[in-house]
Amino acid sequence: MQSQSWRERLYTIIFFTNTPAGKRFDTWLLIVIMASLVVVMFDSITGYRERHGMLLTGLEWGFTAIFAIEYALRIYCHPQPSRYIFSFYGLIDLLSILPAFLALLLPDAQYLLVVRSIRMLRIFRVLKLTPYLSQANYLLVALRGSKQKIIVFLLSLTTLVLIYGTLMYVIEGPANGFTSIPMSIYWAVVTLTTVGFGDIVPHTALGKSVATAVMITGYSIIAVPTGIFTAELANAMRADSLQHKCPGCAKLSHEPNAAFCSRCGSQLFERRNEQEQAQREASD
Amino acid sequence: MQSQSWRERLYTIIFFTNTPAGKRFDTWLLIVIMASLVVVMFDSITGYRERHGMLLTGLEWGFTAIFAIEYALRIYCHPQPSRYIFSFYGLIDLLSILPAFLALLLPDAQYLLVVRSIRMLRIFRVLKLTPYLSQANYLLVALRGSKQKIIVFLLSLTTLVLIYGTLMYVIEGPANGFTSIPMSIYWAVVTLTTVGFGDIVPHTALGKSVATAVMITGYSIIAVPTGIFTAELANAMRADSLQHKCPGCAKLSHEPNAAFCSRCGSQLFERRNEQEQAQREASD
Amino acid sequence: MQSQSWRERLYTIIFFTNTPAGKRFDTWLLIVIMASLVVVMFDSITGYRERHGMLLTGLEWGFTAIFAIEYALRIYCHPQPSRYIFSFYGLIDLLSILPAFLALLLPDAQYLLVVRSIRMLRIFRVLKLTPYLSQANYLLVALRGSKQKIIVFLLSLTTLVLIYGTLMYVIEGPANGFTSIPMSIYWAVVTLTTVGFGDIVPHTALGKSVATAVMITGYSIIAVPTGIFTAELANAMRADSLQHKCPGCAKLSHEPNAAFCSRCGSQLFERRNEQEQAQREASD
Amino acid sequence: MQSQSWRERLYTIIFFTNTPAGKRFDTWLLIVIMASLVVVMFDSITGYRERHGMLLTGLEWGFTAIFAIEYALRIYCHPQPSRYIFSFYGLIDLLSILPAFLALLLPDAQYLLVVRSIRMLRIFRVLKLTPYLSQANYLLVALRGSKQKIIVFLLSLTTLVLIYGTLMYVIEGPANGFTSIPMSIYWAVVTLTTVGFGDIVPHTALGKSVATAVMITGYSIIAVPTGIFTAELANAMRADSLQHKCPGCAKLSHEPNAAFCSRCGSQLFERRNEQEQAQREASD
């Protein structure tokens, strides 16, 4: 009994934030995650690694130990462990520990610990939860609504990039830095997205003309994803219909400003001043 | 009889995707197109061409042969061959074969085989067809609606680029990399579209001031095509309504299944029931 | 009499496009303008100027002569010459001739002939006139509506750029290319507008952090002018109100879907099927 | 008495612009602020500082003296000095003087005088006040409405940048300029925001593929803040309506001057005329 109740209390603390203890737990977890990210970053700077290598490695193993214990506790106290393990958060939690062990074989793998940054999305649980999630929900509804349009857009973009890239390879050639078609496609993406690194640039007059076309295309079609997303978001945010039961035919959903039912023609709302007017006229 | 029926069956397989065989045919075609694109790209990388030149050339001719046979079959089995040949897809199919033969004269022409990427638009036929096409249709309606506004915008842009480019040529001059007016116009496009390669940059104080004006212009007017397209797309998405002039109040747009006007309650359409009309006429 | 009528006919040809002769005149004018722009551009390319200098100079003076004669004719045949001279088009027409004479004193002034490109806006008169102008009108209404918001935005941008620029000058200093505050402000504009030439880049860790802030600011606030313009354009394109005379109080403008007058409460439109229904019920 | 009235008059001149003297004061203040900014900028250009160092330092101290006197006067004549001192404008006014004294210890601190540019926001008080402020208000309402969505967006962006940056560090490594994870994150921000300085660029094929993903991500998700802000701004601009629950149909938003509901015709507000109420009660 005692153990069972202890496990339940642990479950409430670790998985929920509506108790003071739960909130404190999540706040500390966030701080530890951020600290571990900072350590990973400092470890990648040559100067710091050379001077404080031992300390940084020690800290990294310390954080990994903390996250491993937390992971074990989460499995232990969850009523259905397998459900947690294969949930989105469960997989991310596992991915936050694995690279440390992988680094024993592949030295660079430790940097993949940065995947811990995804755990920082828990921050929404520490901040006031509901409004942020409902706002994120609007964004998701808009993204889901624009999915098919975005796929059509990305496929057209791919075709465009393939053709522009090859054209530049044929026109400019390896002598001007366009060493292969994949390289030219990379250049086309750099230019079309208006990033423009400048590591490869056209040198011939014809190449510059095509580059001008690529740039104006990129500058103009940025309107397309923006337009798609904005129109969908505006749709998601607008209260789309009037919810009112028609007195004639019980139709529930109407045009936003409907006065009459579009199915049976009944007036949806009674005038509230007709009786009063009658009374007033009578009393005159 | 037998041959005729075989030709009809072939027509269904090659030109439609609603049969299992037709779907399998289109899926394989897509895979072959992608494989041929990969081969063209590898052939352009010097290292691969030197080591596997024979293999790559062989594969390219193989793919060309497959596409040539497919093209011949399409002409053979289509009920009205000339209609197919001069359709958009027919011309693309021809363009997917020609560069291979052109390459016997002009070596670089083979890379134009990348035009095959346009054939990949067939992917919409393999994926669930209708929703994607209707979404692409929204985009096309919005683009068509914004055509005139976009032309006005592009002409203003052209004038702007011409004047900014010449101004920079006069201010900076050939000594600072602005070697001619066309070169300066190229720079103006690179800057106005916010690409900013950095291969040509202003060096004088006055030149930098004009460059600042160009950049802020470019950064601000990107709002114009976006605004045009978004407004048109929102319009196109809203227009999913019944277009019918209400006999009572002339309201034009109604709910898709409206029988009565939601503004004045008038019946939108007269009942054409003949018995009733007869009765009414009799009672007049 | 004869001369008067000849002048009137000339006026119709030169200033209007609704006659075949007028349309032909404007089309030829456009071709001459484009040809003169091409000559100015070729003249700025060193190679061409050296080889064909005499020819190009000759052509330029030829075009200037044509435009000068056209300008004289416009003044001659206009009923109120002074009104034409001080109109927008009149001033542009004058500016298209002046730089050629100015070039006798200042050699580089000839390139200012590019100002002729503004004359190309006449192209809207040659194309089908009305739809383009009404579309351009939407854009102008939207721009005028967003003027005050844009000024607020640009002033905030200026303050931001001044502060970011000075901060970078203090942090990076002349040793890293930020040689003065105006130079740093130029860098801030290059970065905030996402152009990113790369001729000046931060080298210190602190400088890179500030640069990150500048870039994310620039990337995010591009939403502001776009949002302003889109919202205004959508407003301009939406039929804002219902135009219908209220039977009760003669109010003319109502909410888009109003069924009742919001001033006197009268029903705006009669139900067109009530009489009919009564008849039908009577005949049953 | 005399002194009191003089202080009150000073208060009106310094803090308000609705009197001619107040407007003149604010106009002159703006000119002095701009002049002081110009002096700070010239002082940062090596050539000018060397030749006119004494003059520039003198002018700077002159401007600092003017602002110090102005600050003292503002405190002196304000009815509640502490309220002014801790207001936004009060703090900015103090910040406009401090760096000059700080510069006696830290030479570079004088450039922080650029913070005076924030004082230029007073320009809205000199220009016609109300329309600009109400427009700025729309922008603020839209920004406040989109705050939560923007935070969700920026947090997702941060996670994305951390992961992309580390990935590039692991793939490209110090040999290709990606010397540490913070450096790679800086590169990821430069690329994702489409700035693209080009000081660090990927060199391996895999690195270029990831860079392509980063660029297309950046190019696409710029739609998100734009969409959020546009939708909110359109909302803010539409909300110029009367918010009152209709007693008949619960419609919430009406025309600014509505007396009756445009959907059901109900009178929105009861007449509070007491005589009438008395009559009505009597007739009950």
TrEMBL record, chains A, B, C, D:
<dbReference type="InterPro" id="IPR036283">
    <property type="entry name" value="NOB1_Zf-like_sf"/>
</dbReference>
<feature type="transmembrane region" description="Helical">
    <location>
        <begin position="85"/>
        <end position="106"/>
    </location>
</feature>
<keyword id="KW-0631">Potassium channel</keyword>
<keyword id="KW-0407">Ion channel</keyword>
<keyword id="KW-0630">Potassium</keyword>
<keyword id="KW-0851">Voltage-gated channel</keyword>
<keyword id="KW-0812">Transmembrane</keyword>
<dbReference type="Pfam" id="PF00520">
    <property type="entry name" value="Ion_trans"/>
</dbReference>
<keyword id="KW-0633">Potassium transport</keyword>
<feature type="transmembrane region" description="Helical">
    <location>
        <begin position="210"/>
        <end position="231"/>
    </location>
</feature>
<keyword id="KW-0472">Membrane</keyword>
<keyword id="KW-0813">Transport</keyword>
<keyword id="KW-0406">Ion transport</keyword>
<dbReference type="InterPro" id="IPR027359">
    <property type="entry name" value="Volt_channel_dom_sf"/>
</dbReference>
<feature type="transmembrane region" description="Helical">
    <location>
        <begin position="54"/>
        <end position="73"/>
    </location>
</feature>
<feature type="transmembrane region" description="Helical">
    <location>
        <begin position="126"/>
        <end position="143"/>
    </location>
</feature>
<feature type="transmembrane region" description="Helical">
    <location>
        <begin position="150"/>
        <end position="171"/>
    </location>
</feature>
<feature type="transmembrane region" description="Helical">
    <location>
        <begin position="28"/>
        <end position="48"/>
    </location>
</feature>
<protein>
    <submittedName>
        <fullName>Ion transporter</fullName>
    </submittedName>
</protein>
<feature type="domain" description="Ion transport">
    <location>
        <begin position="24"/>
        <end position="236"/>
    </location>
</feature>
<dbReference type="InterPro" id="IPR028325">
    <property type="entry name" value="VG_K_chnl"/>
</dbReference>
<dbReference type="InterPro" id="IPR005821">
    <property type="entry name" value="Ion_trans_dom"/>
</dbReference>
<keyword id="KW-1133">Transmembrane helix</keyword>
